[in-house]
Amino acid sequence: MVNVEDKADNAEQIKYWNNKAGTVWVAQQEHLDRLLAPLSQAGLAAAKFSANESALDIGCGCGDTSLALAVSQSNGSVTGVDISEPMLAHGKMRAASTPNLTFELADAAVAEFNSQYDLLFSRFGVMFFSNPEAAFENLRKALKPTGRMVFVCWQPPSENPWMSLAGKAVQPFMPPATTSPNPYAPGPFAFSDPAHVLAILTGAGFTDVQMQSFNTPLHIANNLDDALYFQTQIGPAANAVATLGGEEKNKALNAVKEIFRPQMTEKGLDLESAIWIVSARNKH
Ligand SMILES: C[S@@+](CC[C@H](N)C(=O)[O-])C[C@H]1O[C@@H](n2cnc3c(N)ncnc32)[C@H](O)[C@@H]1O
Fold first, then answer.
1. Domain extents for the chain?
2. pTM of the predicted structure, to 2 decimals
3. What class does CATH assign to 11-156+183-217+274-282?
4. Which residue lies with its CA nearest to atom 16 of ligand 1?
5. For each of the chain's 284 residues, which pLDDT tens digit applies?
C-alpha cells in the first residue's frame, strides 16, 4: 500500500491524531477497548469474517478490532491502516505474536489499493475524512468485486449520553460558539444521519447499503472519581479541561461530577450508547 500525498487534505486530522489525541488513545487503550467491547462485538458479528478471507481495518488506531479479526481466523489475513504513528506503534506492539496481522501508516482516503480485500471493516475510524465520498470511492478500490464493507459509527449525541452528558455539563462554562457547527464536519458524529451516510456510500459506488441500529449501556467506570478522570481524557469534558483554567475549570469539572452523581449505581457508572452498524457491497 503506497501512501499518496495528502491530496484530499486530511492534514488537520493527521495532525490531530499524531498529537495529544493519539497519545491519549494509547494511554486509555485498555479502558477504551473494555468500554467499547459490546459495540465491537456487534460490528464484528455483522462482518462475518470467514476462513481464508482478507480484511482491511480502516482507522484501526491501537488495533483492537484488527487483532480480534486476525485471531478469529488464523488462516485469514488482516491489515490495519491508520494515520496515527503513536497508535499504530502501540498496535504493532500488541500484535507482535499475531503473524496474520500487519499495520500500514497511510491516509485511507488516498492510499493506493488494488482490489485485494474481501472485507473493509471499521470501528469508529471512517468519520474523519474531509471528502468522505472521494474517500469511500478510493476505499472501494481496495475491495474485491465480490467484497463487502461493515463499519460502526455513532448515532447523534442525544442518543449517546455516555459522551454528551459531560458536554451538557461543561457547556455553560465554555465560550459561546461564534458559528453554528456543521453536523457533517469530520468528527465522531459526522455519520450520525443515515440519509447522509446512504448518499455518501451510494455516491461512492457501494450498493445494498443497510444501517442497523444498535443500543447498549456502556460501563464508564466503577466509581465517580474514575468516571470524571476518564471523561477529562476524552470527549467534551476533556476539551473543557484543555480550554479553561483556574476557577472556571474547577466549576466545569464539578458540574460533570454532579451530572453523573444521580446516575451512579452500586456497579458504578453505566450510560447509554447508540451506533449504526453499516453494511454495503461493492457494485461490480
Ligand atoms: C475514534 S478513533 C478509532 C480507533 C479504532 N478504530 C478504535 O476503535 O479504537 C479514529 C481513528 O481513525 C483514524 N483516522 C482518521 N482519519 C483517517 C484517515 N484518513 N486514514 C486512516 N485513518 C484515519 C485516527 O487516526 C484514529 O485512529
1. 11-156+183-217+274-282
2. 0.95
3. alpha beta
4. 128
5. 545 444 558 999 999 999 999 999 999 999 999 999 999 999 999 999 999 999 999 999 999 999 999 999 999 999 999 999 999 999 999 999 999 999 999 999 999 999 999 999 999 999 999 999 999 999 999 999 999 999 999 999 999 999 999 999 999 999 888 888 899 999 999 999 999 999 999 999 999 999 999 999 999 999 999 999 999 999 888 888 888 988 999 999 999 999 999 999 999 999 999 999 999 999 86
User: Rounded to the nearest whole angstrom, what is the distance from the C-alpha of residue 17 to the centroid of ligand 1?
Assistant: 8
Task: Name the residue type at position 137.
Answer: E
Ligand 1 atom 1: the closest Cα is on which residue?
124
Pocket of ligand 1 (CB under 6 A): 10, 13, 17, 59-62, 64, 81-84, 87, 107-109, 123-125, 128-129
* 161 residue type, one letter: P
- Is residue 21 exposed (0-12), middle (13-18) or buried (19+ Cβ within 10 Å)? middle
Residue nearest atom 19 in ligand 1 by C-alpha distance: 107
Nearest residue (by CA) to ligand 1, atom 8, is 123
Distance from the CA of 23 to the center of ligand 1, in angstroms? 13
Q: What is the DSSP letter of 145?
A: E
Nearest to 127 by CA among 86, 155, 85, 92: 155
Q: In a mutational test of the pocket of ligand 1, which residue from 14, 84, 107, 131 has the highest number of ligand atoms less than 8 Å from its CB?
A: 84
End-to-end CA distance of the chain: 22
Give the Cα separation of 177 and 201 in Å (integer): 31
In 60-105, DSSP assigns E strands to 77-82, 101-105
Asked whether 206 and 283 are in contact (CB, 8 A), the reply is yes
Which of 13, 15, 64 to mutate to test ligand 1, by most ligand atoms within 8 A of the CB atom? 13
